[in-house]
Write the structure tokens for this entry.
Amino acid sequence: MILSALLTSVGINSALCLVFFVLYSVLRNRPSNVELYIPRMVAEGKYREEVEFRWLRLFSSFSWVKRAWQPSEDELLANSGLDAVVFMRIFIFGLRVFRFAVVVGIFLLLPFNYMGNQLNMDFTDLPNKSLESFSISNVDDGSNRLWIHFSAIYVFTAVVCYLLYFEYDYIAARRVSYFYSSKPRPSQFTVLVRSIPVTSGSTLSDSVESFFSEFYPSTYLSHSIVRRTSKLKGLINEGDKVYKKLVHMKSKEIDSQQRYKRTGCLGLFGPKVEILDHYEKKLEDVEGDVRREQSYVTGKEVPAAFVSFKSRFSAAIASNLQQGVKPTEWLTELAPDPQDIYWPFFSASFLKRWMCNIVVIFACIIITILFLVPVLLVQGLTHMDQLEKWLPFLSGILKLKIVSQVVTGYLPSLILETFLSLVPPVMIVLSSIQGFIAISQIEKSACIKMVWFTVWNVFFTNVLSGTALYRLDVLLEPKRLPELLALAVPGQASFFIAYVVTSGWTKTFSTELLRLKRLVWSFLKGGLCCCASESEDELEVPSIPFHREIPRILFFSLLGITYFFLAPLILPFIFIYYCLAYIIYRNQVS
């Protein structure tokens, strides 16, 4: 990628970030958007709606940036919990690491790379030259200047290790302090037991009672057998939503036009009904279904139980010991919090969970292979000279300078990020069928999958496929793989700079700050539904999608550490990403 194409990509993404920043600052103060942009304040009752809307408020709303800095870490812990604090510490760690890396890389290593003569490049037409002149590829072979790079690597490694140790020690102390300061939770005294064997002539409850009374006579407290209540839970959730809608409608003044609506899709089809009568009748029907289902629940037991102990220490011991002679029976683990429970796999056997894990592994392999198609497409766009040889009919279009710069600079990273945004939901689905019993476990598993997927498909596959377009024969010789990586990694620096700007800068502004998809959906929903100004859905405070954000943050750290001495020009872009993301996410979790 030439310098002018990269500058085109940076310019487009910078303009989009500015547009999203202004739009958010303007739209967040509109009364119709408060549930979208400040849901925590609305849910806690801290937001006061002004009766008279003043347009001047729209253009004096950039103070949210200042307010995002103000909360201390203790206030953040009290308002958003320990997870939010640890998540923000990732950005603090990244800022500290890349602040040092930018100083050393830009002011020390970059000038030495630029002054090399290995590539014999003419710098009179710099915008049309490759960015490899700023990489280590331009340093002469055998040059003594390489000792500067080696020394910088050792110093940078020592700094990163020290910061990692400091951050780990700080977070560990925070966790211990949070544990001692918080009230004991019932889940800390409870163990989930699965694959309970049942002898003839006894029930599940009798088996659990006799087993734990025998082996834990002084610490065993009680137990509760798990029953199939998915249908009952669905009815209760439905009744809860209908009740909240009914309370919401009664608390608001509704004019004659909004009192009636159609019962069909989006309120456009079906017969017209009076809203309050419709919800009252619906609530009565749900209550009747709940009573009928409760009478059938008693006989729907599954071989799982929640076993409570008298102390947290006893529960921790029971959750980490093998309870039975057979390793596939009496499986124990600490019980999740009630709001974190994932019910579908409570009754699954050990063999079923094992088979599901095998299926998930093969599914991940297939997805990884299929993702090679967009990666090859992306690398083909970045190496347009090769495409001109393979597809001569494109040569006429590519002679236009602006088209060539957009196609080679901005379009590849946009296409890659578009395809990559489809992967996290798939990983969540795959993790949900692995037998986990907690939503947090599912998100953690999906996060790990996304880390491996991103490192392989976005880093290694892009590097290797970019070189394969030129030297396919090298890939057939595994012994020359280190040589291939040494040549290919610096050459992909320009592509990864464009990717950081697109996936880091622009996506953080559009997805996390402006919440563009939800904004468009709320606009369409308001335009299509009869009651455009009133939302009938329960207000939910959205949580940070850790399985999507943490792999991306770690991947940018990988790029920065890898290219610290190879192509230090990428470091300022990563540092700017951490600065922007720190402000945006502090605003979101405050």
Remarks:
- The mean pLDDT is 82.
- The first strand starts at residue 190 and ends at 194.
- Residues 240 and 283 are 9 Å apart (CA to CA).
